[in-house]
Every structure is written in structure tokens, then in C-alpha cells.
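Subgroup meeting minutes
Present: P.N., E.W., G.H.
Scribe: E.W.

1. P.N. recapped why we're keeping a running log of single-chain structure predictions: easier to compare across weeks, and new members can see raw inputs and outputs side by side.
2. G.H. added today's entry (452 aa).
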Amino acid sequence: MPETSMDDRSTLRITALSQAVESGAALQIRKLLSTLHPAEIAHLLESLPLQKRLVVWNLLDPEDDGEVLVYVNDEVRAGLISDMEADELVAAATALEMDDLADLIQDLPGTLVAQILASMDKRDQLRLEAVLSYPEDSAGGLMNTDTVTVRADVEFDVVLRYLRLRGDIPDMTDSLFVVNRNEKYLGVLPLSTLLTNDPECTVAEMMDKTVKGISAATSADEVALMFEQRNLVSAPVVDGKGKLQGRITIDDVVDVIREEADSSIMRMAGLDEEDDMFAPVVPSASRRAIWLGINLITALLASYVIGLFEETIDKVVALAILMPIVASMGGVAGNQTLTLVIRALATGKLAQSNTRVLLLKELMIGLLNGVLWALVVAIVAYFWFGDKQIGLIIGAAMIINLLIAAIAGFLLPLILRRSGVDPALAGGVLLTTITDVVGFMAFLGLATWWLL
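Output recorded in log:
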């Protein structure tokens, strides 16, 4: 029997939960939820319509409330929080680790934040304030302040006794951080090094000084890139003076990568990855209406260009039938280049030194594909309408539009990014406008010049 995929399991769970809610089987719902990780519960909640979501949420073990709230997106979280009592929220928040608490506390009312802070000891308050002092999408905002530090001048046997007295170490700890008396970061001591070497070795002799601390101001995207390039499991976070502030672990980075991927896909459609899939109709419609309005303006511009050649189209009806082909092919080719460049910018692979080479490559691809498909569409047009001239015109227009599509798809992300606009959000709309306008202008312009 073939193994069930993760997507299939998720679909089965959503179906099972929906059926259990409809039948009022509270015991069955609790039993199913008790077998799931908080992240899986969050995924299920996001997949349920509002009424069913609240039923399942109210049947969840209160001990899991905080972790589930961290995993759901912002809009769903706001809806769940509004359904909770103040004491439930305080209990859920105070059970979280510091980095997760920092994520959640920013969505809570000020009065509840005060209650949560009042329930914490002074040390934890300072740790929380340290995380909150940095932007959410920075290394400081991602970090967890729960670290294990050692001095450089102590021997391994002292470190081992210290760890045994401590009793446990934070999750995802693969290294201890070496600091001086002023908490300035010096390097890391891998646990594997500690466990496999002579107990009389000193930390200074065996610590790894090549692992540099990540500045707390570093963006989350840069942090993800560092973890990918250096194969890190955890990394120290330092302030401007080199003092250790906390650590980032691979699980935090995976969340960043996933959120960035979701965000890129949603932004290309003019949507927000934090939107609730089952949000009320009116707010959802209003959010989408903005980009539909922008698209309408660009479509009117393309229609205006067509209107300029109304006389030509009236005399040669075949042009009206064929002209969408040119615009469509340009749009697809341009989006391929646009996606490639946006991805290169996001991963830091596009720099001034290689921009020219990549642009020339995209132009050559546009030219080769333009010639190939121009021949195909020219032959089709000739046999369809029995007119060699129309075949030549549409072929030439195809080559022109694919070349312009390559240039626009390459330059738009660079221009938008330099202007402070997200290329994934605005690039697609602008590119479609350019390829439509140029495609129609090239095809109808050549037809006017050649046939009339």
C-alpha cells in the first residue's frame, strides 16, 4: 500500500475535524487534537471556517493555547485572542519561551501586556524587553535569550560539572557560547568537542573562534542566508559592542524561510500571507479590490493602444484574432525572467558584478525563443488566413515583444527595489502592462505600416 503523503494526511484531518464538529463529537475532537503538534493544530485551525474553528479552539487543551497562537498567522491569531478571557491569555503567554512570547505579546492589548510583565521576575522582564527592543524581522527579534555561557579560562571538567548542576540545557543547543566577564562574545564550544576531549583541556584551547556573532540588527533574510551557507544549527547574536544578547536556532530560520516563500507567492497576487483564508467577505473583497483597480487602469491603457489602430483592425479582421497571442507570449516570457530576478535578489545572488552577464543571457533567451515561436506562429497564421504578410508581421512582433519582455522582466525588480517597492507585489502588474502595450503596439504598428 502506498505511503500517505503529508498533504493527504492534512486533508484527512481537516475532514475528520469538520465531521466531528458537525456531529458534536467533542470527545473525538479532543482525542484527535491530543495527538498533534501545536504547529499541526495551527494548520488545521487556519483550514477551518470561522464557526468550526472556534468550536475546535475552545476544545483545545489550555496548556497548548500559547504555542498554537504563535504558529497561526496574524489575522487568525487576532480572532482567537478576541475569543479568550484575560486570565487565559496571561496563562498562555507566560508558558512560552522568550522568543515566542515576544512574537505573541505584540498582538495583545496593553493591559494584558502589563499583567504578563507583572507575573514575570525581573530577569525575565529584562530578557523580554531586550528581544522587543529589536524589529520583529531582525536577528534581535528572532533570537531567544536562553543561552548557556562559559568562561574561556575554565577546564572541561568544570564545564561538565556546571552542566550537570544546571540539570538541562535549552532545546537545539549544539554549542556553548564563550564570553568574558563583561559578557563579550569570544567564540563557541561545540558539545561534541566538550564530550570527546580530555577533561583537563581548557575552553580557550578548544573553542572555535571562527564562528562570528550575528549582529542583532541583521535582517531575518540575511540570517536565513547565513544559516544556509554555513550549515548552522544555532548561532550567537551580539549587539553593537560585541556583547552576547541571545541565540538563533535553525527552527526559527525555517519559519523565516517558509514565511518568505508564502509571502512571495501571495504578494505576486496582491495578497497578504497573514490574511485569514476564511475572513469575512467584505474585508477580503476590499483588500483585493485595490489591485483589481490598479489592473483595470493598466488594462484600459492596453485598450487605448488598441483603439489607436481601430482603422487597421477594421480593414484586416485577422489582426483582432491574432493580437492576443503576441501579448500573451510576452507576458509569460517576461514573468519567467521576473521570477528569476526576484529570486536572485532575495537570495543575494544578484550583484553589480554579474548584472550585465545575466541581462545578456536573458536577452539571448528572449531572442532564441522569439525566433523559434515566431516561426511557429507565422506558419500557423499563414495556413489559417492564407496570407504570408500577416505571418511575417506577427512573427516580427513576437520577436520584438519577447526581447522587451526580457528587458522589462530583468529591470523592473531592480528599479522597484531601489524605489523601496516590493518587486513581488508590483512587478507582475507592471510587467503585464508593458508586454500588453508593446505587443499590441508592435503587432498593430507593423500591420499598419506594412499593409495599409
